[in-house]
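Title: [Solved] alcohol dehydrogenase (NADP(+)) 3D structure

Original question kept below for reference.
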Amino acid sequence: MTETFKGWVSTSANTPLTYTTYTPKPFEATDIEVDITHCGICGTDIHTLNSGWGPTDYPCVAGHEIIGLVRRIGHQVPNHPTNPSIRDIKIGERVGIGAQSSSCLKPDCEACADGQESYCARMTGTYNGRYLDSNRSKSYGGFSDSWRGPAHFVFRIPDSLPSHLAAPLLCAGVTVYAPLKKYGIGPGKTVGIIGIGGLGHLGIQFGKALGADSVIGISRSSSKKGDAAGLGADGFIATGEEKGWEKKWSRKMDVLLCTVSAHDMPFAGYLRLLKRDGVFVQVGAPEEALPPLMAWSLISKGVKVTGSNIGSPGDVRDMLVLAAEKGVLPWVERRAMRDVNRALGDMHEGKARFRFVLENGEQAKL
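Solution (posted by the thread starter after getting help):
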């Protein structure tokens, strides 16, 4: 089997990606290898390729919303020790990989033992990470022809989800689904989704799919009000245009899901929207610090400010089932994988509405 792959490799923060060879991790008995057909572009790709969150471990192959066809299966996968859901995966089957590709999976790890692998202290991202093998092999992502990694973090894709629509669900989808599920969004609840973009447009849909009484879209301007309504939102707040919006919507929300990455967002105003014991969940990850906050914004109603990191493998599986059942589908623009540099530039300039998905040649038709 080939021990080098070809993909779109980044060698610095200031140079375009180059289609060339790289060496993936050694193939192990619990690994799966995939021919990539699709890969979504995530904001994380931009931050990483530009070293925006800190120095990137170049060379780097980004992309962690991967769909592909299984071409190789490790001999221990049919009797996988930690994940029964993947034991009967077959060659040629359509699968996906999200933002995480490894964790320690040890029984004495509190996060892994609780099925919360995304919070493992030894979590490995699907790219720009290091595996726990003796060589500390690098992890490489989906802007490529192939992917290889632990089967524990590989997911079957429901037949009803087309590949180009399933890809963004594996990161953006689970990133919004997991906290909505965790904080009890369902009948009787009102949730506000801050930011109507790659994450937020799925947040609105998952809020409705989970049965919330009311889902409110929140943005600086009214330019996305029509989009929010088309996604199923029951109301809309334009914080930069509506005078007194904080008072009008005070104590209306059970949960606020914040997908934006703005250092100057009206943080205190957002917290006014929460009911007593309400929860503000940050999922957008800015390169800058969040705005300062006065203690009374927390004390007056006992609100909670927290964050959420992607989702566990269990969350991904549950999310895919719900998306298939309820028709939660991202709004995407399809691009050829060979046009990845242009697509990344357009993503950086905010031109995505609301997700770009890269496709690999003839395989993308499958």
